[in-house]
Every structure is written in C-alpha cells, then in structure tokens.
Fold each of these.
Amino acid sequence: MFTIEDRDAREVFTDAARVWLQENVPARWKENRGSLSEHESDEIRHEWDRQLHRGGFAGLSLPKEFGGQGLSMVEEVIFHDLAAREQAPDGMARIGRILTAPSLIGHGTKEQLARFLPKILSGDEVWCQGFSEPNAGSDLAGVSTSAIKVAGGYLVSGRKTWTSFAKAAQRCLLLAETDPSAPRHKNLTMFLLDMKQPGVTLSPIKQASGLSHFAEVQFEDVFVADEDRVSEEGTGWQVAMTTLMNERGSVEATSRYVEVRADMDLLLSTLGGRPELQKQLNELDIRVELVHWQVSKAIEIEIDSSDYFRATSIMKVLWSELWQAICTFGLENMTPETSDHWRLQYLETRAASIYSGSNEIQRNIISERVLGLPR
Amino acid sequence: MTLLTTRPGEIGLLAADAIRSALIKATDQANISTYIEGASPLAWKSISDAGWDLVGIKEDDESATLRDLVEIAKAWGEITVQVPLIPSIMAKRHSATAAEHDGPVSFSIQTQSLAAGHGLVPFGQISDLQFLTELDGETGSLTSVDGLVLDDFAPSLLAAQASQITSFSADAAREISVVWAAEGSGVAKRAVADAVAYAKQRKQFGKPIGSFQAVKHHLANAHMNVEQAETAAIWGSLDPANAHRSAVHSLNLSIRAIELSIQVHGGMGFTWEMGLHFYLRHTIALREMVTALGTHA
C-alpha cells in the first residue's frame, strides 16, 4: 500500500517531470508535427531520447545498478501521461528500453549488459523487435527464421514483419529457430543482431490508412556472433515471454488513454450540442474515464504481484475497442472540419484490435490464464 | 491523469473478509435457489451482534470511508442472501435516527415501475423493518410499511411498496448509488464464477464446453465486464462528481456479465432451479433504484 512518504515523493516527481516536459518538448514538434519531413521528424525523435537521458527521465523503472532511475511503474505511468499531454515526441529508443533492457536484465550476461544498456538509455542506439513473421503472428512459437551455427556465431536467414523503427535501428532483438528438430518452445533462441550489415533488406509496409509505421525485414545469411546470443540455445521462448510481459500494459494503456481522451474531447467539442447524441456521447465518455481508473487499479496489481495478465490483457481490449468505437462514432457523425481527422483515425484504429496481441489472443489469455479454462 | 490509490483501507478489507467468511459459512456455498425463497440462512441477529450494520457510521478519522463500504458491499454481493444489511448500513450512516435504532432500517424509493407517490422499500416484507421518511442527517423519523403490497420481482430483495417516499440528501443518494453498484459487481462476480465452473465440467462433443473458443470469449467478456463494474464503483467512491453516472454504468456492466453467464449455462441457464435469474433480477432491481436515486444525487 502507498505510504504518505510515497505520496509526497510522487508529488515531487510529478512536479519535476511536468516542469521538465514544459521546458523541453521541442516547439517545432508541438506546433508543426504534421508538416515535418520524415527526416526532420526522425531527428527530433532521436534527439528526444538524448534529452530524456540528460534530464534523468530515461529508464525510470529500471534498477539503478543498470543505469535506470530505480523508480516504480507508478512513476513510469505518471511520466507517460504527462508526456502525452505535453505532446512530447515518441522517441526511437522505446524498443530498447521496454523490451531489450528487461530481457538482458533477466537473461543477459554482465558483458552484454555493459555493452548495450548504456547506449540504450542514452538514446545512442536504436533497437527494433524481430519477433513476428509472415507465418508466425498470433502463433509466435511458429517462428521459422533460422539461425545456423557456424564458427564463432550463427547465420540468420528469414523474414520478420511488423517491425517498427527498422530503418533507424542499429540492433534487432531477434527470435530465431536454432534447432528445427527440437520440440515446440525449445527450438528458439534470442539474438542481439547488428542491423547495419549486408544481407539485411528493409521494405516499408503501407497500411490501410495510407500511413506507414512498420517495415518487413529480410535476412540473408546475416552473421550474429556467439557473444550476441541471449542465454543458452533453446531458451528463446522463455526470454521472449519475459520480454512480452515487459511490454508493460499499463504504460501502453496510459499513452493510449491520453490519445483516446483527445479524440473523445474532439467528439464532445464538435457534437456536444446535439441532444440526440447525448446518450451515446455520455456512454463513450464514461468508458474513456474507466480506462484511466482501470490503469490506476492495474498498476497496484502489477506492484503487488506478478498477476500481469489480469491487468494487461483487459486493458488492451478495453482501450482498443473503445478507441475504435469513438472513431466509428466520429466517422458517422463527422463535420466538414473533422472529416479528414475521423476518416484517417477510423482507418488507423482498425489496427488497434489486431496489434500488440490481437484481441482474440487477449481473450484467450483472460479465459485460460485468469479464469483457468481448459486449452 | 492523477493517480490515486484505488485500494480500500484496513476497515474495508477486514470487514469485507469477515462478512464474506460468515456468508460462506451460513450458505455452505449452496446454490442460491435452495434458500432465497425460504428462510434466510443468515439471521439479522448475527449481523447486528457483530455490529456490521453500524460499520458506516462516521465518528472519526478511523471510520469507514465510502471506498471501504464499496469493498464490503462487493463481498456482500458475492453471496446474495435476503438480509437488509446494505440499506441498514447506509441508513445508519446518513441518519442519526436510524443509527439509534437497533433493528434493520431501509428507505422508500420512487422507481419507474411505480405510480407517482409510491415507493419501493427494499426488505419491506420483513415484519420488524422500519424505513426512514428522510435520509439527510438529523431529521426524519422511522415508519413501517403500510398495507403490505409485495414486489417479488427480485426475491433476494424482499421488497414491498409503500405509500410514502423517503427524501434523500444528495450525499446519501450518491453514496447509496455507489454502494449498490459495488454490491451488483459482487453479484456479477459470483455469477461469472459459477459460469466458469460450469463451463469446466459440462461436456459436449466429448470436451468441456469451456475449451471452445466461442464459450471462452463469452466468459472473457463477462470477466472484463465484472472488472470494469468494480472499477466503476471504485471510481464513483473516489470522485463524487461522477458517482451517479459511474454507478449506473457499473450496474449495466454487471447485468451484461450475468446475461453472458446465463448464456454459457445453455439450457440450464434459463431454468428457475439453476438460480442465475435471481442474480439478474437482483441487479436489475438495484439498477432501477439507483437510476431513481439520480433525481436526488
């Protein structure tokens, strides 16, 4: 339970974070985000990671011994909420911080921690995540990108998809099959692969909305050294599970809450005067605030226990389906001023119930791991 | 987003645990249909001897908060018995007259199913039950239900009609709404737990029906509804300005969870003896009363 001291310390943290964000979010990003070129936008996002590090806000919940700030999920959530409100850029170091760092802390060697963590936290090295494949989506254990043993390391071949930050990434946290003859869940190994070498080919994926947030990555005999293997051969599934548990449902849900809240506020400001829509608007508004309260509840569950699934899967389903409902409502009731926004958001949010673990998979997790129903 | 602790205090946790254990002992976890239309498995006396009806009275900083009462009402809802604990707690919290009275106390609410000037008194069928004419601190007196007209829609509420309506302070109406929402989330939690247990043992096509994804997803949705119903009640207890609308929303979610629990029970779900309809009736009646309290809150 929170003590009074915790609460005071939290208020100090919150004030400091707010002031820092107000002083540091680049005006160019805040004001001209829509008109920036991809290059300008990447530059600002990259610099943002370095700013976070200099300001002492990188790796808030990572232990101090590994260069983090040694705070809890509560501070992570507070910071993400404030950052989203101040329209701070989404840095490029996200994958390194929330996926690679916890995996290495859980399973990496001292040498790996020393080599990679400082650069992740300083924002100098961007990471991407090489898990999903064209034929291994929800069934992640079906990964077929191969890593074949050669002298001093492995040669990686295969295709990864839905890869964010692929172009900017120096490294890829890559799940590959090292032993096709081993049983399921024992055939995979996790690697820390260097992306800047021959044999790595990127093709951007254009989405239904017209935007492009992801790439497909092709690997052809790409070398990865023995010392860049995480833990033993065959432990890749275990490492991946640690990583996915660390996708930190409440941090993601917090950022989404702020985005969903902004869309809800747009609905209220443009349609609030129409009495025939009041009932639906009220219902959507209540659901938005419930996401916020669900996050508050979930953080306490995460702090108290390892009962992540209960919290994370529920939040994912809630914010994604609510966001779709809001954007659908916006599309159905759009005005000349809002039509561009709702058309784009409607198409963009079609993806929300699919990415980060499809909602069908989330419901399987809830029914099997929380309610204990048979597989 | 201000992050508030959503947890109850020690009083809430301890009282909820004690009440839950007493109810489990009293009902022996029997199906609700085996006792709800007969004598209550738990006597009022054991409740008043333990002083539970007085748990909400505000005396000092150590007194139960609304958040604590949410925890208690949730536990109470998980094992539904026909005993007027929740109305008594709320009456005694908001009325000095009720607090001084030894027996159970309730109130009369004009719901949409009643003609103007008539109120529904939860537990009004209990012979020594008194209800308040006013629920606003110091004023008001106790009276009994005149010329008993039963309202048996929800047998667990033993409701009767009265020709007098309680006048509620905004605070009392708001707090009762939140506490009933919490009770509803407890009822829904129980219904979903029953449905999960049923889906694990009931076999069709040679397998437990709970292994079919269509059934699993109904239960996952029901579970999410219960979680949110509880969250909405907690929200209401910590945010007075939104308390009433979050309470109504909470009850809607609980009702949906119970409907899904009925669906998962298949043919048994719509029988009288399986008893799920008692949960549905209970939460629908709570929603009717909470909706009516919105005119006071």
Amino acid sequence: MLVLLSALLAGCQTASTGATPYSAAEYIENRGSDTIVNLALAWAERYQELHPEVRISVSGGGSGVGITALINGTVDIANASRQIKSEEAQEAESRGIQPVEFVIARDAIAVIVHPNNPVSQLTLQQISDIYSGLINNWREVGGEDRPIVRLSRETNSGTHVYFLETVLRLGDSDSDTLFSTDTLLLPSSEGIVYEVRQNPNAIGYDGLGYVPPDLKVVAVARQAGGPFVLPSVDTVNDNSYPVARDLYMYTAGQPSGTVADYLGWILSSEAQPIVADLGFVPAAAAMPAPTQGD
Amino acid sequence: MRATPAKGAADPPLNWQEAVLSRVIRLSGYSAIVFVVLIFTFLVREGLPALFDVPLSDLFSVRWYPIEGYFGILPLITGSLIVTLGAMAVAVPFGIGTAMFISEIAPRWAREVLKPMVELLGGLPSVVLGFLGILMLSPYLRQALDLPTGLTALAGSLLLAGIALPTIVSIAEDALDAVPKSFREGALALGATRWQTMWGVTLPAARSGVLTAVMLGIGRAIGETMAVMMVTGNAPVLAIRLASIVAPARTMTATIAAEMGEVATGSIHYHVLFFVGMVLFLISFAVNVTASAVVFRQRTRAERVLS
C-alpha cells in the first residue's frame, strides 16, 4: 500500500510540476519510523496540494533507518518514534552533522485485549509481570481461568523498544527485565490486531492510531489502586495516561528554505488536525504555534 | 557430461558462430557453480566474524534477543527443523499418494485436469497462503485443538506442506510416469494385483525421482519465509519437546527477514544474522548431498542388477 501511495504521490507531483511554471522543483526526502509513515504521507500529500512546486518523498523502514540515512546525508528529514540515541548523535557529530529535534506529534501505546475479556484495567506493574512471564493466567489479574498469550511487535520496531523500556522495565534504566521467550513477535500491527480480535487469551499493544474500534482497550494505572486511565488525546496531553511518547522529526542542522517552511507548516494549526484524524495526539498543545527557528 | 570430450578433436574446426555459441553455453553451465561458490564465500565472509564477536557458548545457547545482546541461535535452528519436519510428515505421504493416484489410477481426463491444477497451486504466492493461515487456519487450530493460540509451529507446518506439496506431486508424478510400461505389464502378468504392482514395482523403480521430489520439497519448505513468518508466532522458544509442535516457534528464515532490514551494517547482530544464513545454507547443502548420495547408490545397484 505504501508503494502504491508513493507511486500516486509521484504521479501527482509530475503532473503538477508539469502544469506549473516552476522548472526547478524543491525536493524533500523524508524517511524513518513506520509508526509515523502514514502521518508523514498525509502531511506530504496536503502540503503538495498547497505548494505544487515542492515534491516530498516519504518512506518508512524504521526509526533507525531514518536516522542512519540522516547521518549519511541521504534524507532531509528523518522520522523517529524514539529520541536519537547517544551513539547515533556521536556518529552524526563525527561527520559534522548537528541533528535538530522537532516534536511533531504524540502517540499513546494502547494495551489491547479481546472484547469478551472481562479484564478492563491493569497496573503498569501487572503488564510488566505479564510480559516478563511472571503472570501466566488471566485469573491472576482478575480475569477468567485462561492462559495468557503475549503479543508484541518485532524487536526492530521502535514501539517494541519503547514498550520494553517504559512498561516492562517501568522506566528503570538499570533493570534488565526481558520479554518472556514465548512472547509472540509479530511482524506487523495488523498481525497483532488479527490475533487479538479472534483470540480471547491474547494481550497486545499498539499505537492508539492503529487500534480498531472493535477491540477492547485496557485502562492503565501507574500504581496499584491509582487512577486507571484510558488512552485518549486528553489523557495523553495532561500526562495522566502513562504509556505515551513523543514522535520526532530530525533535520541535519537548523533547517532552512523549503524544509524549514515544511516543518513550520507541520507544527502549525493548519497541519496538526491531520494528526488527530489519524488517531495520534497533536503536538500543538505542547508546542506553541509555528515559531521561526529555535 | 560423458559424450562431449571424446569428439571434438577429429571433427572439422567449428565456424565462429558455433564456437561463440558453445562458449556461451559452457559459460552458463559453469556460472551455476561460480554463483554458488560466490554466494557461499560472501556468506562466510559476513558470517564468520560472528564466531569471533560472540563466544561459542553464547552463540549456541537458548536465548535469542538480539537488541540486548543475546545471540543464542539454538531456538532458531530447532524452530526451522520442527516446522520443516512437521511439513514433511504431512506433505510426503500426501504428495506421493497424489502422484501415484494421478499417474497410476486416475482416468485420463482426470489426470489432464489434476496435474495442471496441482501445478497451479505451486504458483500461489506464499503471502496469500500466509493470509489464509492467519485468518482461517490459526483460529481454527486454536479452537479445534484447544490451544492458547493458533499461531504455532503446526500452522507453519501445514502451510509449508501446502507449499511443498505441488513440487513433490509434480516431480514424483513425472518419475512414476517415466517407469517403462513393460515393468507394470510384467508384474501384472506374474499375477500381482494392481496395488502390489504400484507399491512393489512402479514406486521402487521410480525411487530416485521420488526421492528427488521429496528433497526438493524439503528445500522449498526450509527456505520458505513469508508464510512462516506470518503464522508461527515467531517466539524464539527452544523446540525440542513433542509438544513444541503446538507451541509458537521462530524459524531461521523469519529471523533473517524480520531483522536484517534494520540492522546496522557490520554490527555483531549483522554478522550473527549472516551466520544464521550460513547454517541454513549448510543444512540445505547437507540435505542435497544426502539425497544425491542415496540416489547415486540406488542407481549403481540397479545397474548392477540389470547388467
């Protein structure tokens, strides 16, 4: 589908550039996180309608792929669902590149179960114990007497790493808790959704934007007895939902020209509603209006 | 192979077109060997550093979690083996049975429909089968066998059996078809029943071709990636118990496919993935060598008997 979309995009671009007097089209190369790719595509499509002289190419591959490409100088903007790692930043600096970070949206990771599962709330500690293999039956967290089938994304997914650090290890960087070996590692969000939809034993997690309405989202609490919160735009923005993260775009050095205009537009009130349409949480609340530079 | 060198010298010199053509043909013949050697050299060059980066005891341990530096490949090897063995347990009897039916029993019109249909099945993209597996097969297995999840080695085995079946049927049927008619007529004339003829004469006579069919089927199964990745659940659990067949498993191919995309070139993880590729290559190489050794031995004995 991505290929198709980018092909369509490419088609639009050639058509529009052919029609407009601009001979030298401005070209923006945008690559990285698979979580962000749909959002980035939606933005790119809209922006190209408004500015036919600009061509934007969007592709996925993962946060690491995007940042590596930025360091190698093959993209203008890297998408990442995690912050740049210190090794990556060092690598960039050794090549004379100063990565500049933009928070472009926020994303809640929803914990999902089968609609018939009576369990509707869990603490972070319980989720951690489930995924690390300490809790193996739904009965132990107030559910039916059923085995728990743990579903996760593959290890190369930014979402997997985020879930490991924030939920399994409860944000403790010294912790060496790991996923239980019998955790099913599914290659796509769709795989998780299919399995949770038909298997009452399953528990999974996914970006809120990718959770279809027919699955049950579990309310999560930071501490036992604490308020159990469902993920939504409001609970992410007031920080009451504990499993939410920022989504980033990185440029090599302070952006200028077309790239700066594009990023400014992304953070503007014109582009941020698209974020909510795709099920993510707009960053505009956290980042006041489009400012020029930093 | 045997015929070419004897001639040549006595023949009149070839004209230049023939000379060029024979060179081209010879070149493409040798290129197969060259490519295999090049591929293996590349695998070794990229994979062998894994042995220096990771202690052998870690490499052959039971925990695979590469982003935290756990590189135990035993779960992956056992995962591939159990899925492939399961697939063969289904595909070999069904495949040979189907081939025997098509070649020996089915009426002419049925044969003309069945053979192309089976071969068409072989052209089905494995992703499509994977979708069927994830949407139909795995939910069905979970309910029918009362398992925690249907995404298991068994689901992978059944899909792989479906993928390997057309290869096995097609080649085994060709082999059975090539058995001279006189063999069957001789057996029948000696008073053997049709079943005795099929089981005792035709099948043994076609043994080398049938074995080749099975080996190619295994090759097809162990190297298959996409369908397996979609339905086996990819949990790196050591699969050495009998019950492992109904538990999730992670194969070598799925691991390479899932992780190679985002691995940093030259990192330990990168080298270990190539090492896994090397192991995969060696396993299919061993399967092929065994197959040809068995086929070769069987042929010489047959020749001895016939001479």
